[in-house]
Amino acid sequence: MSADTTDVLVTGLGALSCVGSGTGALWRGMHTARSAPTRVPDPLAHMDHPHMYLVPEADLPVGTEELDGLPLGRASQFAIEAAREAVESAGLAGLAGVDPRRVAVAISSGMGDSDLHERRRAGEPAKHDRWAPVFPVASAVGAWLGAQGANTSLSNACAASGYALSVAADLIRSGEADVVLAGGTEAYSRTALACFNRLGAIDPERCRPFAADRRGTIFGEGAAVLVLESAAHARARGVKTVYARLAGTGWSCDAYHATAPEPGGAQIERAMREALREADPALDTDADTAPGTAAAPRAAGSGPLGFVVPHGTGTELNDVVEARALSAVLGEAAPLTPLYSVKALLGHTGGAAGAFAALAAVLVLHHKTLPPNVPVGPLDPECEVPLPAEPTPMTAPYGLVNAYAFGGNNVSLVLQEASS
Fold first, then answer.
1. What residues contact residue 108 under an 8 Å CB cut-off, 6+ apart?
2. Residue range 15-36: average pLDDT?
3. How many other C-beta atoms can be found within 10 angstroms of the C-beta atom of residue 63?
4. What are the C-alpha distances in Å from 377 to residues 31, 53, 210, 323, 395?
5. Do the Cβ atoms of 377 and 211 come closer than 8 Å?
6. SS3 (DSSP) at 23
7. Predicted pLDDT at 297
8. How does the average pLDDT of the chain come out, rounded?
9. Which helix (H) or strand (E) covers residue 269, if one does?
10. Which residues contact 203 (CB under 8 A, 6 or more apart)?
11. Rg of the chain's alpha carbons, rounded to an integer?
């Protein structure tokens, strides 16, 4: 296949989050660098820390509570709302002039539309008499759009939407699709929040990745959807704006523990190195360095990797392992490669976290600016990562995105500026 056929471009963006509806609201929120969790409006949320970064009431989708008679929960409604913006920004509204059989969907979620079932089981009045599946998010987006290509719902926990973007790239590179709507969505789930409270993994104040006094994570609601498209298809239909290029992907699995990352971080390093190497061999500071060992010294800041959007959840072991792995992979450039923590702004959006991180990276590359991080307080001495508090001009062509999950599922993505 030609490079034009296998080159994967980002041609559309859509978002809905605690900072509002739309990618414009997200970009403004990233620069404002202020957000806060609120108490969930659920009288049955009997738990120690019943708070989340919720989608504001004024920004909740309207008119999508069901689709062709199928009841939809908040997660599916969020996904359709984000997909709507992504499709419009890509110039694909109504799929005019596009073969719907060549349009695919890969949307992830950790809990899907579990809110419908939780309300029913709690004896709350049902809005619909019809039964609904828990994970209809991808099929709901596909049906709403009229996409007739592959339709995949991924749910390998908090790495799911990173995997969704990687699967989308594979569909394009293999010739199975020309266009893929990929991303993730998550909504309040009483069950999920209660379970993490029982695990003692919820911070009582806010999401504070890499902070010395962090005490866990805090979930966030929302959806992030990206339109991925082959360069050949984008050129043929005269796309006016290309936001970025998905240049590299890397997967790995610790197979170590049900919930905890492998402390040495070998497989986390592996995923990062594979993604960097696929994007550009020059990005891997030492392709011959074995996982778990430090990369060979090089001149700080000499590489083309401009920034990292880390997984960093605010949980104790996760942040330490990722910080060490970044140091090993980036070598002497690590202290000068800034991080942008999207979870400090939006909370941990679970199955949508990887997509939000990728969307944030695309916006940074597109606007050539790294926004200020939400202040998290003094950093953990074991997490020596640069989290700039002021906007930083971004001239390097690449950004790295990480997403990790229970079960040791790891994925890294490398985004490249469109002009490259």
1. 137, 153, 154, 155, 156, 160, 161, 163, 164, 183, 184, 185, 351, 352, 354, 355
2. 98
3. 7
4. 18, 19, 9, 17, 28
5. yes
6. helix
7. 46
8. 93
9. helix 266-279
10. 49, 214, 215, 216, 217, 218, 314
11. 20
Closest alpha carbon to 406 in 204, 192, 214: 192
* Separation CA 352–CA 370 (nearest Å): 21
For 122-153, write each residue's pLDDT tens digit.
877 767 778 888 999 999 999 999 999 999 99
Mean pLDDT of 411-419: 95
In the chain, the amino acid numbered 368 is K
Least confident of 89-93, 230-234, 299-303, 352-356: 299-303
Q: Which two tokens stand for residue 46?
A: 């009997």
Q: DSSP character for 337?
A: S
Q: Which DSSP category does 217 fall into?
A: B
Give the E-state strand segments of 8-100 in sequence order. Answer: 8-17, 20-21, 38-39, 51-52, 66-67, 70-71
CA dist 59 and 116 (Å) reads 20
pLDDT single digits (tens) 214-223: 999 999 999 9
Q: What is the mean pLDDT of residues 23-29?
A: 98
User: Which pLDDT belongs to residue 126?
Assistant: 67
Residue where the block lists tokens 């110039």: 91
CA distance linking residue 75 with residue 342, whole number of Å: 20
273 token code pair: 């190195």
In the predicted structure, residue 299 carries a pLDDT above the cut 80: no
User: Taking residues 266-294, what's their average pLDDT?
Assistant: 81
* Contact indicator for 262, 254 with CB cutoff of 8 Å: yes
For strands 222-230 and 179-186, give the pairing.
antiparallel
Q: Please name the amino acid found at residue 328.
A: A
The alpha-helical segments, DSSP class H, found in 294-348 are 316-330, 343-346
Q: How confident is the model at residue 275 (pLDDT cuts 50, 70, 90)?
A: very high
| CB-based contact 105:138 (threshold 8 Å) | yes
Contacts of 19 (CB under 8 A, 6+ apart): 25, 26, 28, 29, 32, 35, 345, 346
Per-residue pLDDT, averaged over 60-85, amounts to 94
Longest dimension (CA), the chain: 64
Which are the contacts of 71, defined by CB distance < 8 A and separation ≥ 6? 65, 113, 116, 127, 128, 130, 132
